[in-house]
Design goal:
TIM Barrel; 296 residues; 10 helices; 30% helix; alpha/beta; globular
Length: 296
């Protein structure tokens, strides 16, 4: 991609300053590299050992959404599953002030309540391929992947598997992208585009389906969103029943304290963005809610 095209897409391809503490010893850097390459077996074995005593999975609610326990805390997670928060924003987004490292510190403290394996940063209207979070991955033991949230004529859409072909084809800064084009072209070029917070007024899919024909090629929608207001998730359940979409979850966190309150549970191991795209297309996942149960 030439300099002119990078400028048109708003890409900042200069190398950013490293995250605090990014100058790791060679051994630590190799461990981060090995985990991405699928060789971090000790880490996986330890996670399976810690999860071995957890309770078996409860049946899902209609639409494949795992609900909360009857107690104050989130459902326990069986061994062998991978849980990712697929939707959150760092201080790179114009409406967030949350540092990535602060997210990871909170998840470390709250492992019993929010047993996540990683996060996917979905910054608004941008994607910077030079961002490198491997130092933070190694320091805190969480997978960190990057994606983008774009704005379309059918509401907001999360784009996973962003590559140079996608960036050449779509201008992420455009707040009126054609949703059908985004879904079709992202899929054709190796990624996957999924509508987010569809129950939200104006920027959600449900509102647009009231006056427009349904989109083709939608694989899944965000059934659990940590920022949803009363009634929004119920609208999404009806959308899923009507069109047969798969369901996923994300916190949509813009504040550190909200990270991981909603997430997605995968049946397969995920170590790279390619793994994530493959599994999102394959359908072996479900949203999970880690918010404390509210009194009736």
């Amino acid at each position: 991609m030439g300099a002119g095209e990078r400028a048109r897409h708003g890409l900042q391809l200069h190398r950013h300053l490293p995250e605090p503490g990014a100058r790791l010893p060679r051994g630590a850097a190799l461990r981060a590299r090995d985990r991405r390459a699928g060789r971090g077996r000790a880490h996986d074995d330890e996670r399976r050992r810690l999860r071995a005593g957890r309770r078996p999975r409860r049946p899902a609610r209609p639409g494949g959404v795992r609900g909360r326990d009857g107690g104050d805390h989130a459902p326990q997670v069986p061994a062998g599953l991978v849980i990712l928060d697929l939707h959150l924003h760092s201080e790179l987004s114009d409406d967030s002030r949350a540092p990535v490292e602060a997210y990871l510190k909170l998840l470390q403290r709250k492992r019993d309540e929010r047993p996540l394996d990683g996060i996917v940063l979905t910054e608004h209207r941008q994607f910077d391929p030079t961002r490198d979070y491997r130092a933070l991955e190694d320091r805190y033991g969480f997978l960190i992947l990057t994606a983008a949230e774009v704005e379309t004529d059918y509401g907001h859409v999360l784009v996973y598997g962003v590559n140079e072909d996608i960036l050449r084809r779509l201008d992420f800064r455009n707040v009126h992208l054609p949703a059908q084009e985004v879904i079709t072209e992202v899929g054709r070029l190796g990624g996957v585009a999924l509508p987010c917070h569809p129950g939200r007024p104006t920027v959600g899919l449900c509102a647009h389906y009231e006056t427009k024909p349904p989109l083709e090629g939608v694989i899944a929608v965000e059934a659990l969103n940590g920022g949803s207001k009363k009634g929004e998730d119920a609208r999404v359940e009806e959308l899923i029943r009507r069109y047969g979409y798969k369901a996923y979850g994300g916190s949509d966190s813009h504040l550190v304290s909200f990270v991981g309150i909603c997430a997605t549970e995968f049946e397969a191991q995920i170590r790279t963005i390619d793994d994530l795209v493959r599994e999102l297309k394959g359908g072996r996942y479900r949203p999970v809610d880690f918010r404390p149960r509210r009194p009736a």
